[in-house]
Write a structure and sequence with these properties.
Length: 314
């Protein structure tokens, strides 16, 4: 009780000092005007069923449209299945059934008890589609998710019809070393500061990353979600990029046996890797959107989704 009273007292003191409330004498001379509640937000997202299945590392969280041609979707790191929110409706309207999965340690999926690899991430695929009663599905991944999609095709070839790789990542060992140096300095050694400035810095980095590749400034609300997703997962956020940068996509791309679409954009940080992938696999189809960046799904949702639908329906 005393602790509650002292906390209340502290709040009152702060409110007085900042002018949010008045002393009794002042209050008799001041009429309090209450602002009306803001109107309710209009929800435009389609209804997606959210569920869990037991996977090899704990519970796996997913979103599922429930009907249509099934498309399993893997997000980039450090984000979650919400990365694809802006394209769910278009996909559903075109007869596609998006099934977006949170990778272990991200979104609302349990994390691994060890530092995971892309090969580990791929193991959550079968429990999800088995639980949904699906035999063969199309698989899409963006950046880190593209590597997971590749590995799913290699580990479970009979369960995959077509692949869509958004941001393939064939690198040589010198490049890999530089990317892992980034993970060490910016992510593994990330400092959580008492004044909370690390949150503002994370917002600034994501805002600039989006803004530098778009003619339209991003919504601060959207970037807030991006920044928060980095921290809310059950595992260390650096697990995702570490898994991506240690995965040898240059060795596994030649092993892909499924019809595959490279879906990329000229403003992507790793656009040159998509071009290299096309050189390595001229049999792959390729769609190149103009501009954009790593957040192309939100920057050009209509064009991105149209490319996916056209390829899956051909």
């Amino acid at each position: 009780m005393n602790k509650k009273l002292s906390t209340l007292g502290l709040l009152v003191t702060v409110a007085l000092s900042m002018g949010f409330i008045s002393t009794h004498a002042e209050a008799t001379q001041t009429e309090v005007v209450y602002k009306p509640n803001p109107p309710p937000m209009t929800i435009t997202l389609p209804v997606m069923h959210r569920g869990y299945v037991d996977g090899p590392f704990g519970q796996v969280h997913f979103q599922d449209a429930g009907k249509g041609r099934p498309l399993v979707m893997f997000h980039q790191a450090p984000m979650s299945s919400r990365q694809f929110e802006s394209v769910f409706k278009y996909l559903i309207d075109q007869g596609i059934r998006p099934i977006a999965i949170d990778l272990p340690g991200f979104g609302m999926s349990d994390t691994t008890a060890f530092v995971p690899t892309i090969e580990d991430y791929a193991k959550i695929f079968v429990p999800v589609i088995d639980a949904l009663g699906l035999d063969v599905v199309d698989v899409l991944g963006h950046h880190t998710g593209a590597l997971v999609a590749t590995e799913v095709g290699l580990q479970f070839p009979k369960r995959v019809r077509k692949l869509v790789l958004g941001g393939p990542f064939p690198v040589d060992e010198a490049e890999r070393k530089e990317f892992l140096k980034f993970v060490q300095g910016a992510e593994i050694d990330f400092e959580y500061l008492a004044d909370g400035s690390h949150l503002a810095k994370s917002f600034e980095v994501r805002y600039n990353m989006y803004n530098d590749t778009s003619d339209v400034p991003p919504s601060p609300k959207l970037i807030t979600r991006y920044a928060v997703e980095k921290f809310v997962g059950y595992g260390p956020f650096w697990y995702g990029h570490h898994a991506a940068f240690t995965y040898d996509h240059k060795q596994t791309i030649p092993k892909i046996s499924h019809p595959t679409l490279i879906l990329t954009n000229t403003g992507d940080q790793i656009f040159d890797k998509a071009q290299l992938t096309k050189q390595m696999r001229p049999d792959f189809e390729m769609v190149v959107l103009q501009g954009g960046g790593v957040d192309i799904v939100d920057q050009q949702p209509q064009a991105w989704a149209e490319a996916v639908v056209k390829y899956l329906k051909d």
